[in-house]
Amino acid sequence: MKKKKQTNRVDKLLELPKEVYSNEPKIVITGFDELIIENFKGILEYEEFFVRINTYIGIININGYNLNLENMTDDDLKVKGKIESIEFERMID
């Protein structure tokens, strides 16, 4: 318990964003045409109209048209296209 509290104090002092020191995904949406996901585990499904991304806390479903995966690295993934909806499937704790 003490180690976790010390980590939280250090993070607050350094003002680090939560996604930097945890595995929680960060999702940045730019308009209806671009989405960036940081801290993902893998791609479960990829079609022109549907993308499923596995994260450490659940699955992100992206629905749309002409969806393309761009600029994928170990840390983040960019999805471009006509994004219609985003759904989240939480993992049961």
Summarize this structure as a short list of keywords or feature phrases.
single chain; 93 residues; alpha+beta; Immunoglobulin-like; 6 strands
Describe the overall structure.
The chain is of the alpha+beta class and 93 residues long. The protein has a single domain (21-90), classed as Immunoglobulin-like (Sandwich). 18% of the residues lie in helices and 55% in strands. The protein is built from 2 helices and 6 strands, in the order ααββββββ. The protein has helices at residues 2-14, 18-21, and strands spanning 26-30, 34-38, 40-46, 50-55, 58-70, 76-90. It has a 6-stranded antiparallel sheet with strand order 1-2-6-5-4-3, with no helix packed on it. β1 and β2 form a beta hairpin. The radius of gyration is 15 Å and the shape is globular. The protein starts with a helix and ends with a strand. The model is unreliable at 1-5 (pLDDT under 50).
